[in-house]
Amino acid sequence: MASALINVPKKAKFGDVIEIKTLISHIMETGFRHSTTGVPIPRDIITSFVCTYNNEEIFRAVLYPAIAANPFFIFTTIATESGTIEFTWQGDNGFLATASATITVE
Amino acid sequence: MTASRIDRRAFSGSTLAAAAAAVFPMPALGAGSSSRVVVIGGGFAGTSCARELKKIDPNIAVTLVETNRIFTALPMSNSVVAGLRKIGGQQFEYRAITAAGIDVAFAAVKAVDPQTRQVALVDEKSLSYDRLVLAPGIDLRWDAIPGYDRAAAEKMPHAWNDGAQVDLLRRQLTEMPDGSTVVMSVPVAPARCPPAPYERASLIAHYLKTAKPRSKLIVLDAKENFSMQRLFQNAWKELYTGLLEWVPLSSGGQVVSVDVASKTIKTDFDSYRANVANIIPPQRAGGVTALAGVADRTGWCPIDPITFESKQQANIHVIGDAAIAGALPKSASTANSAGKLCAAAIVQLLAGGKPRARELASACYSLLAPGYAISITAKYRPVDDQFIEIEGSGEISPLEAPQSRREEEAKLADDWFTQITGEVFG
Asked: Could you give the ipTM of this predicted complex?
């Protein structure tokens, strides 16, 4: 499985706006390139990224070939309750990667 | 889009002229019979250019403006960091340059006025020129990494732009106990000498291996790929397994802030406590290029690849690390060649001629351990307003090679340094 990096605050006060960062290693091959011998290089990209907070979806992105290698997302949400924040990346050739973090909301 | 660029340029030109009017209250004195060229910056590029000008045409009055009386050469300075060389071996005076009939002015530049063609120095002197050459090297961007400013560099040295900083990093490594963590940060391109951070990482790892083997070096890199990468990585595996950890951009290597008090280096995903931190910040062309209005929004100076004349100001040429010219790498070797080509072009321009496109060669050696060096060489030529690498001209050390080859290259690296410093400063 590809390596994913996530950064979620361990603790937050109720109602705080928290910043979440994710970075995943992925080639993001566009499908538009050719090898030196002229053979097309097949597309291999991540097509979707979803983040859930205690099973409720809070962020989703659809990715296209124009997105560069190693997609990096920064987004925010409001700390509402303690629990788990989960991340899922899916893509071509059955690509699947997941990560999760726990947060304590006081 | 084109129109708005012209507007912006016209605007900055007029503000510069207004600022210059205050600095130059007196009109310039009449020109003498010979042409005057002022070269700002006495490093490999500027000094080579000044000497070549005088060599081709002794009638040209050449003034070299430099702030430091002693020049510290940065090629091989990573060996000083690792204790393999002394800083004294990196330092050179300007005696030979004065002896060659060049007027050397040790002063900082206060202002440049491209309209009246004058350079104002902080010592109140003013120099008139027919052609101005800027070779100021790089400036470190103190605004790029939150927490990393000039004061921070006294605790977390960059060791990237002067001898005192190289010495400081050396001292910190010597004084730290065994079992320490050394953290190094590598900036985005373009930056001075692309393979140098990796040479430094190798030589610091060598120092740890021989003097402090329970210590560790973590290299946080804002890039994914680098020059001679496979050669470096093979050598790291062979020589420094367990001592050197390279964290590329895709593994969260980009440094986002530092805290001097706790010697902490933060990335987007982690934070590292260091005993010794070597922060190499992002860079831009030396400050005088902004005074002269030749740096663009990237912080670097676009030039014509045949004459090295600025694309933003007439009669001002930019050479060395400050220039941006397609594939040309920012190395001492390139600076030396560019200095000479620029001098030849200036002599032709002053005589009313039209310089023609010429090739430029670059060589770069990296020492990975004592008696173990690798190299990359290439030739470049102007095509469509840019330098491009001539296909098939480049040579890079082989991935698989006997130790004797690496030893030979280490010797060649020493010879190269002796040769280039001898040519430029001897």
From this structure: 0.84
